[in-house]
Design a protein that fits this description.
Rossmann fold; two-stranded parallel sheet; alpha/beta; 5 strands; 6 helices
């Protein structure tokens, strides 16, 4: 089981922490926590070992690394959706990048679980 995660907001940090706790409690088995970056970031380049100590893998999304920087995160998110069977989110507003990503996931026929009590 691969858990693909970004690192662009508070939800990403909470989700990564929850995944690490759950996999440690149940045994790692066949799970991987994979950070998918939209492009090479200075923070990653300067702290590569600490990232690799926390995540099982770190990937740079090829499609988003070639996109305009203003659209790179959205391109990366769509690539993550394309690789996913289930999308977990916490969306409270019908606007913004996460909302657009979830709308894309729904159009692709992906299962979506919104942890918020709001309808998508």
């Amino acid at each position: 089981v691969e858990f693909l995660i970004g690192r662009d907001g508070e939800f990403d940090h909470l989700a990564a922490s929850a995944i690490r706790r759950a996999t440690k409690q149940s045994g790692y088995g066949n799970t991987s926590l994979i950070l998918v970056l939209p492009y090479m970031k200075a923070e990653y380049r300067d702290n590569e070992q600490s990232y690799l100590d926390y995540y099982d893998e770190v990937e740079i999304c090829a499609d988003s690394s070639e996109a305009h920087y203003k659209s790179a995160i959205q391109v990366r998110n769509r690539c993550m959706v394309d690789r996913s069977d289930l999308v977990v989110c916490c969306i409270q507003h019908k606007s913004g990048g996460a909302y657009k990503t979830v709308q894309y996931a729904l159009k692709q026929g992906k299962q979506v679980r919104n942890l918020s009590d709001r309808d998508l």
